Amino acid sequence: MSKHQNAYCSFCKKSFKEVGPLVEGPEEVNICGECIELCQSIVLQENFRRSNDPNSYFEERIHYLVDSVGSEIHTINPRLHELARKAVESRQPSLFSSISDLCESTALLRIIAGILERIKAKNSDPDKLALLEQVTSQVARLKTEIDAEADRTLKEID
Rounded to the nearest 5 degrees, what angle is found at the Cα of 71, between the Cα atoms of 67 and 112? Predict the structure, then answer.
């Protein structure tokens, strides 16, 4: 136990107390989430540099964002968390597919909402801000629809 109290990332040398959980490798090598994300970014950028298709990097990046947000979404959204629990219990492929679609939709909406907030924070043009507010309200409406779909799916399972 004492070795874990002094654990640090072998890449950035930060303590687990600073960066959170560490992934343990062989021979007391550890890596933190921040360094994992940096490595993934470097690999994606290198793939982009080597690629003949400039859009492939952006597609890979979008998929990475959706996957990373989507994998966490069920812990944030109680409905999706309940669906995930019931899918595990039922072992129904169609239910897993429904949850995957809901998580992806929710992940995309979270990404879009974050981008909209950043754009609004940097913008002072009243016309553009009004347009951004309209889009933000549409994203909120979509989120409500996804929540309702999750509720319907939960009722179907019960």
Answer: 55
Residues 26-38 have pLDDT tens digits of: 988 999 988 998 8
Note whether 85 and 38 are same-domain residues: no
Query: DSSP class of residue 32?
Result: E
Which helix (H) or strand (E) segment holds residue 31: the answer is strand 30-32
| Pair 96, 141 in one domain | yes
User: In this structure, are 64 and 34 located in the same domain?
Assistant: no
Cα angle, residue 70 at apex, residues 53 and 108 outer, rounded to 5°:
65
Chain centre distance of CA 14: 24
69 and 36 in a common domain: no
pLDDT tens-digit series, residues 11-60: 999 998 888 889 999 988 999 988 998 888 888 778 777 777 767 766 77
CB atoms within 10 A of CB 19: 17
Range of the domain at 62: 54-158
